[in-house]
Structures are given as structure tokens and as C-alpha cells.
Amino acid sequence: MSLQRFLEINPVDRFEENYKQFIDENSFYGFPIDPILKAEEALLKPDVTSIAYFSMEYGLAPSIYNSFLIKGEVSEANTFRRHELFSNMRSLDYFLDIQIDKMLDLPIYSGGLGVLAGDTTKSMADLGMSVVAVGILWNKGYFKQNFWFRYGQLPEEMNWDPWNYPGLIPLNKKVKLEMRNETLYLKLWKYYVYSYDHRFVVPLILLDANIDSNVEELQRLTDQLYRSDNPWWKIYQRVILGLGGMKALEALGYNVVRYHLNEGHAAFAFLEKARGKSDEEIEQEKKSFVYTCHTPVAAGHDRFHINDLRIVLKDEDIAILEKLGTEPDKPGVINLTLVAMNASNHINAVALKHSWVMHNQFPDYKDRIIAITNGVHTLTWISEPVRNLLNKYRDVLGDWEKDPTNLKNVESLRNNWDFRRDLWNAHQENKRQLVSLLWRWGVDENSFTLAWARRIAAYKRPSLILRNPDRLVDIARRVGKIQIIMAGKAHPQDNLGFTFIRELMDKIDALYEYRKYIRIMMLENYDTYFGKLLTNTVDVWLNNPLPPFEASGTSGMKAILNGVLQLTTLDGWVVEAEDKDIGWIFGYRDETNDASNEMNLRLDEDAEALYQALEEVVGLYYSTNKGGEVDLSSPWIDKMINAISQASYFNTYRMVNDYLNKIWEVDRAFATA
Ligand SMILES: *Cc1c(COP(=O)(O)O)cnc(C)c1O
Prior knowledge:
Elements: H1 2-9, H2 15-19, E1 27-28, E2 31-32, H3 34-44, E3 50-54, E4 79-83, E5 85-87, H4 92-95, E6 98-103, H5 112-126, E7 131-136, E8 144-148, E9 152-156, E10 168-178, E11 183-194, E12 201-208, H6 216-219, H7 231-251, E13 256-262, H8 269-274, H9 279-286, E14 289-292, E15 303-305, H10 306-312, H11 315-325, E16 326-327, E17 330-335, H12 336-343, E18 346-349, H13 352-361, E19 369-371, H14 378-381, H15 384-392, H16 394-397, H17 417-438, E20 448-453, H18 469-479, E21 482-487, H19 495-509, E22 518-523, H20 528-537, E23 540-543, H21 555-561, E24 565-568, E25 583-585, H22 603-624, E26 625-626, E27 629-630, H23 635-646, H24 652-664
The protein binds pyridoxal-5'-phosphate (PLP).
């Protein structure tokens, strides 16, 4: 019965040949099938208030969490084994690489925005909410990063195989979009995001233009995430997500009462509701849209010229966009952030600080922009040793796996010496995992280890710690050995990003002579797998964006959850934890809330502030860990406890509850009563 109903809901393409072996009466790739039916029925019912969540990218990280089971091996195209690294050990890098037997993460994300969307859908599932997520099936992913020894990054097209990806199913269903000059067809795929206890799911619908019904140029529109050769590509990709997503919800018969636009990319969704309506009716439609804005940088908002929009959209659509999105001093230019804000009943910034930046940027909208601070999905990002530790103390903590706000209770273990020892041991166990990958580069578990890993962008100041290498070497010489792990990808069309990677490599190479004091290495292809590995295992997480350009940042939240301390500038989410003693705060303090000009990166001043803080950090580290002998009374361990305690707030369980109460305002958003 279950399978029959499943196939009625999901007419799976090539079911007999490709998928039958993974889906049966009870099981969907090794997970229970009933939660799928329950979620799908709820979405079809008019009396359940269901939500649709739109995002350009999703970082679901199935290689590290809720991996679907298949019989046999994951196909070669969907695995990712060999990684090179670039270190200050020179020729060693030619001979060695790291081999990890891992499944390629569903390659439909590029970075933080996607990881947030993935974590959000997981928490929606954990809470048993009736939600459908909408995204795009990127046939060529984002891109694969190859190090071009010392010369920087060489981007390569990613070839993966959606037809053999565990848990991803193609439907015999397509939607049709009538555009100005052509018709576009989109094939629908589904991926099910399960809750931590496997009792609930959130279906994710993925739209795909790569089908024969489309003319050739259109087939390539869903190839590469953030491909930006020309405005036409960008407009079309946004049309696919917004308008295509709305058509897909309709074709699937879902009954949705709230449309959540995760970033302005999906703003065209509103057109579907506004077409052919009077001004009054359009006002009514706005009540069902909410918008989360992720960018603080004025230049980061999507803007399109009407002449470019006219190549794709019909006159009627353009007229609606002109009303909603024309910037006061720029006739003829449509700003998608304005469209999204004007089409939505609620607008949220992604951290308190970011809401101040938005208030400064959009004073007319000040009263409507609230802050809902981002979070991370606790069970995705927690390491096994820390999870086991917290479960050992579950009597004191409560059911923190179900409700991570319970992590606050870790404070009451502060004076428990067994806990302090267990916490340090769990951290060391994590660190040994890193050492097992990097010992051939001389990384060891009792030396101070710091990581900087993120998307390469100017305001994130990738090479700040290498600004004055002499200072760094001096600290390492006097205070103790320093191990630094770095990683990050630059968008293939971002020339400045490319030069940053090259600069990093030059500076790393120049530390060859000092390898006795400093081990520094950069890992290829930063992804969610490495995101987890690094945030779980290092002693200190370095975060040095120029305030106020980091809207939130989430990697530090993954780190604190594991008791990894922060060495950070005061920006994004950190502002809300400033007085919580979760590490060290240094550098420029912004009071302007003006993110319009990143010309002055304050590299020299902030590098000096970083070195001063670092000296204290390394000093405290070596007085805490004396060659494997640990001082359990050290303030380092108090900071670790403070960090885990703060993870009670910076998680997507709390964040999604805030969405429910503050912006969705629906009563029965649950798949089951
Ligand atoms: C968590 C994560 C991010 C986001 O981290 P930021 O602090 O916002 O830079 C980006 N990329 C990957 C792979 C991640 O895991």
C-alpha cells in the first residue's frame, strides 16, 4: 500500500530500471517510507497551514549527516576522494595528498547561504513542520577547485550524476513557463530531508531545465550555480527559482499559505501571485510572503536593467516589477531586494547587527525589518566525541538532541571536574582525527592549532594572519609552535578572489624556513565535509571579516558547539555573544552600520590587533596543555564551556521557532497534530 501511494504521489522516472532496488513498501533508501506519505498528505490538505521555502542553494551535507543507504557502492561520479594541499613544506606537497573515502555532497550549494538553507530544512523536519522546500538541480554543481601549484586556483567543471545520487529521485512531471519569446520546461526532482529521529520529512523540489523539450541554450540554464556571464543568465536563473517554483507547487497540488523567500533571488515568485490582479488584490497577496535578507553590502543586492528584463519577461510582469522594485534615483533599474521587501509582509535580517546595517541602508523600511539571528543544525555539526560526552551528562542537560536550547544547562557542570576532564579528552579525540589526516605534514595533537576556512572575499580578509609574517614567526618562536589550517574557494569569475588565493600561497611558501615553528597548510575544495572536520577539531576558529560586512557568519557557530574557541572581530552573530567570553575579540569596532564602501580594509591595524590577541591565546594554550598534561583549572576550559552554552542559542531549532512565531504567523504548521 505504501509503495503504491508513494508512486501515485511521486511518478518516478525510470523507476523499474534505476530506483526499484532502493524504494519498497517500508523503506526509502534505508529510511522509513511512512513519514514521506504523512508529509505529502499534509501538504495536500487545505486545513494544514503549510509553508514553501525558496532558496537558490541547499547545502544538505549528506556525506556527514543522515546519509541514505544504498546496496553496493556510490557511483564513481558521486564520490570525491583525492584532495591536494598546499603547505610551507614545499616539495612534500608533490608527493602527498589526502585520501578520504567520501560521497560527494549533493553539489547544489556554494557556501554559507546554502548551508543555512540546508540546516533550516533539517530543523523544520525535526520540528515536524509542514514545509516544502524549493530549489534548483544544478547539473554541474558549483565548481571543483584544483590547486595549481603556487599559482593559485584552477576551477574545473564539476561532473556529477544526478541519476545515481542516493535519495534523489526524478519525477515524470514537468512544468511549463511561457516567457516573452520562448517556452521553458522544467523537470521536477525530489529529495527528502529527514528529521533527526526519522519521524518526519521535508520534501525538497528541485527544478531542472536540462531536458530535450527545451532548446539547447535553455537546457544549460541550470548547469552552474551563480553562473553570471551576462544578465540574461542571471535573470533566467531567478525566473526558474521564483516563477518555476510557484508553478511546481501548483502542479504538485500543494496547499501553501506562506512563501518564504530565502534571499532576494526568489523574488519573482511574487509575479505568479500578482499577475492579472488589481492593486487591492496585490496588497492582499503580500500577506502571504516573507523575506530573509542575507547581504549587508549595498552592491550585493541583485539589480537588473528593464531592457534586460524585457528579453525574458512579459510587459505585464515588468509593470509589476517597476512598481515594486524601482530605486528612487535610478529609473529603469529594478532592485530585487526592493521587490522582495515590497512584496513581503515581514522582512528579517540574519543577525542583530545586520538589522542595524539594513536600517541604515533602507530607512523607509526600518519599522518592518526585524532580526532573526541565523543558526546551525546541531546534530549535523556536532562531533561524535562531544555528542557522546553530552549524552553521558544527559541527566543534567536534559534532552538536548531534541531541543538544543537545553545546552544552556552545561553551565551547571562548570565545577564538575569529571566533566572538565571529559570535555578536554573529547576535544583531544577530535584533534586526533585531524592529526590522522595531516601528520605527514608534521601536525601533532599537543601543538596549538588554528583554522581559517571560508569563501574567499575581500571583506573576509583571507590573508590577515599572514600580513606580517615576521610577527607571526616571532610569536611562535617565543610562545610556542603554531599550526594553521586554511581553506576556501573563490568564485571562478572573481579575479580578485583568484589573486587572494595566489597571495596566500606565496605567503605560505615564504614560511618554508620557519617550518619548525609554524606549520601552515591550505586544503583544496573547502566543502561541508571539511567545514565539519575543521570546526570540530582545531583549538581556535579564526574569523576576521571587516565589520560591518559579515551579515551573520555561521562557521563559528559550528565551532562553539564543539567547544572550539573564537578569535574574531566584532561582527555578525558575534556581536550578540560579545560578553559571553567564548574566546577573544580583536580589531576594528564599527559604529557606523554603513556597509557601502569596503575600500579601506584596515589590514595593517587589524593584523597588529590580531597578533596581540594571538600572543595571549597561544600563551594560554601552552599553559593549559603542557605537552599532553592538562591543567583542568585553566580558564581555557571555562571558555569551552561558555562556548557550548552559547550553542543553545545559535542553532536553527531556535531560529525556525522564531520564523514560526515572528514572521510566518500561522497556527497549524505541523504535519501531525
Ligand atoms: C558553514 C559553512 C560556510 C559558512 O560559514 P561562514 O562563517 O559564513 O563563512 C561556508 N561554507 C561551508 C562549506 C560551510 O560548511
